[in-house]
Amino acid sequence: MTSSFEFHTDPARLSDAERDRVLGVLREGAAQGKLSHETFMVRMELALVARRSEELRALTADLETGSSWSRRLYRTVGRISAFSVRLRRAWQAEKLPPLLLPEPGPYALRIGRDPANGLRLSHDTVSRLHAELSRQGSMWILRDLGSTNGTTVNGRRVTGAVAVQDGDMVGFGRMSFRLTAR
Asked: Could you tell me the CA-to-CA distances from 96 to 87, 159, 166, 170 in Å, in that order?
């Protein structure tokens, strides 16, 4: 039997470095005449909505015919780029104001600009009804409620719901906090 409240925890969004690398390969393929304009546009759109690395690899599989040396170089640059992003986020996390996880209760903590929310954030990039934080068993779940400027966890955009924990960086529009347990 399923409960009336079900949630889907999507994997965190792909890194910008992964997506940028694929977009660069697609641009280069179009510049070299390997892709028609229409194919280029379709693949660019698919790259922007891809959720998994396999989806991105499929978009460039016919374009990446470089030597093993160039593939290793691309992977190395990608890893260095990803490391620098993680380092910057870790540095920023310590500077963020804390957001205390609420006491578990029967209702989710609503977050947004509306005064009726449990956590009111008065910032023009925060939607009226932006997100909600709830306890499901032993996990905290953060759900974006269709906000205009998005909800992020550790720098990755949330689509649907995602599990969060003490120490995670959460963002609502341009406002960011570090989750802290009591």
From this structure: 15, 23, 13, 10
